[in-house]
Amino acid sequence: MFIDALRGVAILMVILVHTSHNIPELTYPSLRFAQYGQMGVQLFFVVSAFTLALSFEGRHEKHNVRNFFIRRFFRIAPAYYSAVLFFFLLRGFLQAADNADLIFVWPNDYGIANIVANILLLHHFYEPANNTIVPGGWSVGTEFVFYLLFPWLFVKINNFYSRYGLKRTSYALFGVFLILVVIQLLLRKIFNIPFYNNSFLYFSILNQLPVFCIGFIAYFLYRDGVFESMNYQKAIRGFFICTVLPLLFWKDFRIIPVVSALSFLYLMIIFYKKSVLCSSALVLVGRLSFSMYLIHSVFAYQIGSKLYMGLLSQTFPPVIALIILYTFVV
Asked: What stretches of 49-95 adopt beta strand conformation (E)?
């Protein structure tokens, strides 16, 4: 149950940051708080790695790896393909609305290469298709690349953890993180690939893989009883520190996702130990989180912007308008 609740927190964070884009008048503290909602995607990644590890190690099948890929594909593909078609039609009709002589216009960004890359779920590797066909679809592409790596990656890290323990595994993963940062710097230097928040390189598995690995660490701690034994106040302190640091230093987006992932590890412990946080409403939102993620942009942008400009901006101060608009979108 606590996993579904955390998925609920993740999608509510994502909706918050996208809803806030409609309100440019937000003060600095409220804007920064809303911006942190972007890290809801990293919470999804941590929870994903955790649940995949839990499921993979708990299954004893003859064709475990093959069955893993089949299950992952059918968990993501049907809904994602529906979103591809939905946004194709939506954008075509919206673009045609500017021309009274046309009913439908082939939408921008829906070139054949972009569509094929998304259908194959390989848009992670092709920048023009990475985040254009389905809003926020970059995370699905990154997640799918992680699926491709998962069976090999989990076995290697699990074996290393079993042999050397948590401390050395953490050092090893930190070393991997540094290597990935160096690779990104070389790509920027040699191929002039820019790195900034929400850039192609930011979305890359090179930048997001350490976040998934923290999900593995969370699973090992859960499996070994650390979730049960850890002091609740210690978890609160860890979550607070690792949440405040990105808010104070909202600059280097090679580091912010990893530090945020550490805060989510502590958040998992908090939700595990305090079942009262896992309300039925939050659990329900978590179970619907993938479909909410795929379509929430329609409400956050197309409808939300009109609602804000047409009514809320004229009636309420920015923070109150954000709360009302956010509630509507959710």
From this structure: none
d(CA 258, CA 256): 6
Dihedrals phi, psi of 173, to nearest 5 degrees: -70, -35
Sign of the Cα pseudo-torsion (105, 118, 291, 265, in order): negative
* Main-chain phi, psi angles of 104, to 5 degrees: -145, 140
Count the neighbouring beta carbons within 10 Å of the beta carbon of residue 152: 10
Please, what is the Cα angle at 290 between 289 and 294, to 5 degrees? 115
The answer to whether residues 45 and 113 touch, using CB atoms and an 8 Å cutoff, is no
C-alpha dihedral, 273 to 277 to 283 to 284, nearest 10°: 170
Q: Return the SS3 of 21.
A: coil
Helix axes 28-35, 2-20, angle to 10 degrees: 130
Contact 282/9 with Cβ under 8 angstroms? yes
Please tell me the predicted confidence (pLDDT) of residue 101.
66
Tell me the residue type at 144: F
Cα–Cα dist 179/182, whole Å? 5
The pair of structure tokens assigned to 179 is 């290597």
Query: What span, in angstroms and rounded, lies between the C-alpha atoms of 15 and 289?
Result: 11
Segments of the chain scoring below 70 in pLDDT = 100-101
Give the integer Cα–Cα distance in Å for 194 and 208.
16
Joined together, the tokens standing for residue 288 give: 């619907």
**pTM of the model as a whole:** 0.95
pLDDT digits (tens, 9 = 90+) for 291-303: 999 999 999 998 9
Helix, strand, coil proportions of the chain in percent (round to 5)? 80, 0, 20
CA 5 – CA 12 distance, rounded (Å): 11
Task: For residue 49, give the amino acid letter.
Answer: A
What SS3 class is residue 102? Answer: coil
Q: Is the dihedral of CA 41, 13, 195, 212 positive or negative?
A: negative
How many helical (H) and strand (E) elements, i.e. helices and strands, does the chain have?
A: 17, 0
Structure tokens, 283: 């659990």
